[in-house]
């Protein structure tokens, strides 16, 4: 498209006439370099920008590159303003707002590329530079993997290089030189970065609630079926649990309850804000049986206001969680929540009852919310459910019986896989569940649970999706059960008269080992990995374990570095009970220490003199003691003559020494640095002369 | 009170910046402050830190601190760009008031290659503004670079070379390091020549003939005389000089008769500077016409002659007259 435009309008220069990198004028070269850096920085955003924004970005950058190469004039103010207004309109159209995270990023990208059309002076590089760093930062909102970090490091280096180029006004400095200066500044600054990163006190968010949009396993506040083609298993630890001595409940019984999602708009499952006010007032209506199971949990930051406690942990003085941190409360859907997102490691103790029932016993109005389905979505699944209801065999069947029947359907015809491909690409997700339930029949827990709930609701049985974690690692670590983010799970609850909400896990029906042994099924390898695997399985295993190790370190040392790790560090440094203030003191101490060292170096550097000059001033002083004036410019030879004139015979040795110095300094055998032996001999002679006076 | 403070400040400032034609930049005479861009950068870092806190982005912290580190290091790099440089002003040549006089400055860097050193006249560069009149040079390692500046003297007379400023924002433009240098050299500005040039005064010896003689270009050959300082080279009789070993000059009638006195009294103007301007224009015109000319100012008399040295003598007298 740009190709056609270039051919169509340019008279002198087509793509065939590329003058070559080395022959470009300096300004054009700098602009092209900056455009490449900007393109590189923006590229990760293309995946989630609105549909119009990425083409606009590419077009503008290509246009600007062509202007740079042809040395054509930049567009005037009005076309630019027009473009900006157009982009703002489109942003409004896409996001229905100009504020907020997504709209803000869209606007930032648009501003950045439009600013390149205004790059008149090299000084404009400063604006692009600052915008560029914001865009690098916004990339981290979407992903903080090792790959993204490496790509953004390249961006930062490129932006710094462009900035250095902007401040080299003379000649045509090679890019490598500017790049070297940028890299040097960053490397020299690295110790400062390390110290600040390790010691700058981590604090809770100041006002906004962070939103986690990463497509990986783990909890989030909502669920969107079918959008994820391949689930990246995140092996980082979600939390550790230690049960009271001796108790080790079976993995199949370990359901760690997260957000309960009951509202379905056809696209996304979210928490239900009950239409009937009576339900929350009555609370969870939890009834427990059997022995209490005490446990201690160490929760890694999950950036959600959610405590994934074991089902069911009651809200009583004796059993409820004891936390050193934010206040926790039990929602009416039996889920534990905190007043603010958990952003640092948390320890708590609580008691749970594996045997429990909850929810209303008899049908009531509030349950109507749980059979609600959005009209117009998944008509074939609804028809399938209708057919089941109309089936003569189940005419009198109870709800329990219907649940069994549907589970049997799942057990017989469905496949569990972590790489099901996407569902509902077209028609705004309208037929995603149809596609899953009736056509392809493969997926993982979120497919099974959401489809199951839709079928249940179609059968007029109240049902809801529960997200959380299921199971634990089979091996204990220091006596702790490890629950990883890859243990994240989605299951369902159906309401049955007389029993209340009953857990039903349709994934267990199709892949019982997922639940009973808590085994995470490995995803199918990709093409390259498959090829390596076929040739050399051992290499593949080693590659994978190395990669996992690196990735784990990355998660552990960079992404999950929080106040807890900072305090651990302080403990290693000998602070018995570290606090926020200790961190600050240490940081200030280190920084002022470094400044002192810098100042000392500067002082030393200022007083650093040529060793010959230093010798000279000492010599002048000694001769002064003997009453002989030595001027700055006089050679030792001249001084020797003066010594002979003034002090006569007895100072012959001194005169000879001065002549020797003259030889050492200026003679044929001149030496680079003064000889200390000469000075000691000279000092002895002058001291003797001074005594004899 | 304020005047006293200002005076003290002036004294201190001048003591800090002794006049010298060679100025070596050390820790003591380099100043450094953040630029506007530097403050914006700090604000950007602060916003990025807030974003990192609010979205709990570990990599946000990394990025912010990486940039903070690089910015801090750039302060030292900027300072280092100037440190160790030696500036030397070559003796400036005189020129006319109102015209730009070239100042030639030699920069020496003993150790490193230094980029983007800007030189300008102090006062031209507004703090924080892009130094519009600054000349940028790169100084090679162990080598020299030459910067040409222009000094515009408003009046005639002997001027101190204005205080100069060497400045740099390299590498990131976050900091501005500069030094103020007061060179010891003085530069002479001759009076601005009057425009348009008034007709030369008639030579009093043979007033009627002057214009006609001048029109006949070089005049008739009338004889030779001993060489006098200031005689034009083309007047020298080289053949005779080669024979006798003595320099002799042609004594043309025009040179003889047009011994033109450019006299203060002949300017027919009232203002001192206007008179000096007219005399300056006359000196230039007489020299261009090859007329032997002398200059008479109150208290100053320069005997007639011609050639570059004569012109220089006359112009200097005009420039310095008071």
Task: Give a written overview of the molecule.
- Chain A folds into three domains: 2-199, no CATH class; 237-516, no CATH class; 611-692, no CATH class.
- Chain A contains 23 helices and 20 strands.
- Chain A starts with a helix and ends with a helix.
- The model of chain A is unreliable at 1-16 and 209-217 (pLDDT under 50).
- With 322 residues, chain B is α+β, with helices and mostly antiparallel strands.
- Chain B has two domains: 2-187, no CATH class; 210-221 and 253-320, no CATH class.
- The longest helix of chain B is centred in the first third of the chain and has 25 residues, at 58-82.
- Residues 125-131 and 205-220 of chain B have low confidence and may be disordered.
- Chains A and B meet through helix 6, helix 7, helix 8 and helix 19 of A and helix 2, helix 3, strand 6 and strand 7 of B.
Distance between the termini of chain A: 99 Å
Number of domains of chain A: 3
Topology pattern of chain B, helix = H, strand = E: HEEHHEEEEEEEEEEHEHEHEHEEH
End-to-end Cα distance of chain B: 35 Å
Which terms summarize this structure?
heterodimer; A: 693 residues; alpha+beta; 3 domains; 23 helices; B: 322 residues; 2 domains; 4-stranded antiparallel sheet; 17 strands; 28% strand; elongated
Task: Summarize the topology.
The complex is a heterodimer of chains A (693) and B (322).
Chain A: H1 2-9, H2 26-42, H3 53-70, H4 77-95, H5 101-116, H6 125-142, H7 146-166, H8 175-199, E1 223-224, E2 237-243, E3 255-261, E4 263-264, E5 268-270, H9 278-282, E6 287-289, E7 293-299, E8 306-307, E9 309-310, E10 322-323, E11 328-330, E12 336-338, E13 346-352, E14 355-357, H10 379-390, H11 399-413, E15 415-416, H12 432-440, E16 442-443, H13 445-458, E17 463-470, E18 481-484, E19 488-496, E20 500-504, H14 506-510, H15 512-516, H16 527-535, H17 537-559, H18 563-572, H19 580-607, H20 611-625, H21 636-647, H22 652-666, H23 676-692
Chain B: H1 2-16, E1 22-24, E2 31-34, H2 36-54, H3 58-82, E3 86-89, E4 95-96, E5 101-108, E6 114-121, E7 135-139, E8 144-151, E9 157-160, E10 164-168, E11 175-181, E12 186-190, H4 210-215, E13 221-226, H5 238-244, E14 248-252, H6 253-257, E15 260-263, H7 272-289, E16 293-297, E17 300-305, H8 308-320
Parallel strand pairs in B: 4-12, 15-16
Antiparallel strand pairs in B: 1-3, 2-11, 3-5, 5-8, 6-7, 6-10, 9-12, 10-11, 13-14, 16-17
